[in-house]
Write a structure and sequence with these properties.
The protein is mostly helical. The protein has helices at 2-8, 31-43, 49-55, 61-71.
């Protein structure tokens, strides 16, 4: 970097520049991207549904799972159709 600045700006050529490298890690701060990441992890079965919900910040995971069971209709068994 120092060489680049000295090359681009002639006033820096004879000066001793003090430069420091700063690395900023990638952090997901977008809720949609974070949830997509959790869903992709859960879809690959790396984490259980319960663990994924906990990572997503759901406080009462057991209550949420009960609500999901109530919302999704259970398909009839083949023996129930006869």
């Amino acid at each position: 970097m120092k060489s680049f600045f000295q090359l681009m700006n002639t006033s820096f050529r004879n000066s001793d520049l003090d430069a420091e490298l700063v690395i900023i890690p990638y952090i997901i701060n977008n809720e949609v991207k974070f949830n997509e990441m959790l869903m992709s992890v859960n879809g690959n079965q790396l984490f259980s549904q319960k663990a994924t919900m906990e990572k997503a910040g759901i406080k009462d995971v057991d209550k949420m799972q009960e609500e999901i069971k109530k919302e999704i209709p259970v398909p009839p068994k083949p023996t129930d159709l006869q």
